[in-house]
Specification:
single chain; alpha/beta; TIM Barrel; 12 helices; 8 strands; 46% helix; binds 1,3-dihydroxyacetonephosphate
């Protein structure tokens, strides 16, 4: 695979600062030899970013760091929100944008996702943009059209260079935390359609470069079935990312 696979762990609302530091230390022992082949990224909650970042720096761990969300404004009176430069200051490389839980519980829309995507790039980081259909959309047989429209809205106004560097995570909402998954072939069909959308927006070189991850109930037992698919370049992992050994097994499967 010409594209470097990425396995990113979305810790969601789990782990204190101390627990996060221990988890990332344990993880390193497992993934130390993977870095050449697989980009391993952890996305702790805001309150654990500093401790995890410090461990990564002091121990020179080859693990990337991401945040789970941020505001699109550079600063301002937005109580409770976090700005891009605060994340850059903690050496974040990535920011997850538009996770379905943000869309469902925190009023995230395609429009706010697009603003955040631009803000992440402007700050010198890379967005991991989440898209994916609900069960109702799937049952109406509208998955690909729905996901394509989410991708178009999220990436609107980017340059071709940014369109090539963005990471897109295809996460069917009904597969998140449920133990249910699409078939690997079905997930690959949607990933291919995402890649084609990037191609239509930014040209074929961007389509060939953009990394498309699968997310939703990825476990050590099923990870490789997704990774062998040609348009799937890795995974965004929730529950299985909270333990060093299971996350490391998934990262190993991506090699
Ligand atoms: P699970 O791996 O727990 O299903 O979560 C997936 C996810 O939402 C990652 O962002």
């Amino acid at each position: 695979m010409a594209r470097r696979p990425m396995v990113a762990g979305n810790w969601k609302m789990y782990k204190t600062a101390g627990e996060g530091a221990i988890l990332v230390q344990n993880l390193e022992e497992h993934v130390r030899d993977l870095w050449e082949d697989v980009e391993v990224v952890v996305c702790p909650p805001f309150t654990a970013l500093k401790s995890v970042s410090t461990v990564i720096e002091l121990d020179r761990l080859q693990i990337g760091l991401g945040a789970q969300d941020m505001h699109w404004e550079p600063e301002g009176a937005y109580t409770g929100a976090i700005a891009a430069r605060m994340l850059v200051d903690l050496r974040c490389d990535y920011v997850i944008v538009g996770h379905s839980e943000r869309r469902e519980y925190f009023g995230e829309t395609d429009a706010t996702v697009n603003k955040k995507v631009h803000a992440v790039f402007e700050a010198g980081m890379v967005p991991i943009v989440c898209v994916g259909e609900s069960l109702a959309v799937r049952e109406a047989d509208e998955t690909e059209a729905f996901v394509r429209s989410q991708v178009r809205a999220a990436l609107e106004g980017l340059t071709a260079e940014q369109g090539a560097r963005v990471v897109i995570a295809y996460e069917p909402v009904w597969a998140i935390g449920t133990g249910r998954t699409p078939t690997p072939e079905g997930a690959n069909d949607v990933a291919r359609s995402i890649r084609a959308t990037v191609g239509a927006m930014f040209g074929q070189p961007a389509a060939m470069q953009v990394r498309v991850l699968y997310g939703g109930s990825v476990k050590p037992e099923n990870a490789s079935t997704f990774f062998v698919e040609p348009d799937i370049d890795g995974a965004l992992v929730g529950g299985a990312a909270l333990k060093a050994d299971s996350f490391a097994e998934i990262a190993e499967a991506a090699r």
